[in-house]
Amino acid sequence: MAKKAPRRTAERILETTLGLFNRFGELNVTTTLIAAQMGISPGNLYYHFPTKEELINVLYGQFEDRFEALLKNPPPANLEVTREHLLALVGEIWNYRFLFRDLSHFLSRNRHLELEFPKLLRQQSAFFNQSLQHLSQQGELNLRPERIGMVAKAMSMCLTHWISEEYVQAPRLALEPEQADSSQVRAIDLLLDQVAPYRPQARN
């Protein structure tokens, strides 16, 4: 059996950086620590990524591509499909949770994220608006047209700030890998709770 080609150093750097950022927060991780974790010299790291900001921007680009692809899914046919869509979105945010733990920090000092992240939020809000409109048309929700925008905004805010809330509640534990399942379940429950009052059976 042919051996797999070794992964390129740049890919390994990004993978290692993402793992460290997610566990400890970007502010607590230096390029020296990343290089030491990989067993390479800082000079080797700087050859591929001259600055820490470039590492952040490349990781954000990865997240943006994956998240945008999910936002382009067709509107859900029912609430069960809605749950599947939300699971996918929540999963991607968890995979890049360092961005959302310190979001205000990034937006205040990283010009690229300051410009790009609001665009992603607008796409996210549009996704929720379209999904709620479609679910209302299908009879899955008793949601008046004038309420759709506010419910969509509430869902978008929950999705964007869920990681930050988790971190505030348990700073030393919330972002550890073993918390993935329970944290994501709480996020899904919070999101679906926004539409629970508008389900037909809720009015019976």
Task: Give an overview in words.
- By secondary structure, the protein is an all-alpha fold.
- The protein contains ten helices and no strands.
- The protein has helices at 9-24, 31-38, 42-48, 52-71, 79-95, 97-101, 103-109, 111-137, 145-169, 180-193.
- The radius of gyration is 19 Å and the shape is elongated.
SSE map:
Layout: H1 9-24, H2 31-38, H3 42-48, H4 52-71, H5 79-95, H6 97-101, H7 103-109, H8 111-137, H9 145-169, H10 180-193
Q: In summary, what is this structure?
A:
With 204 residues, the protein is an all-alpha fold.
Key terms:
2 domains; disordered N terminus; Tetracycline Repressor, domain 2; elongated; 204 residues; single chain; mainly alpha; Arc Repressor Mutant, subunit A
- Reported by name, the CATH topology of the largest domain is Tetracycline Repressor, domain 2
In CATH terms, the superfamily of the largest domain is Tetracycline Repressor, domain 2
Domain unit count: 2
* C-alpha end-to-end distance: 63 Å
Q: From the 3D coordinates, which CATH architecture of the largest domain would you assign?
A: Orthogonal Bundle
Low-confidence stretches: 1-6
Residue fraction in strands: under 5%
CATH top level assignment of the largest domain: Mainly Alpha
H/E series: HHHHHHHHHH
Number of strands: 0
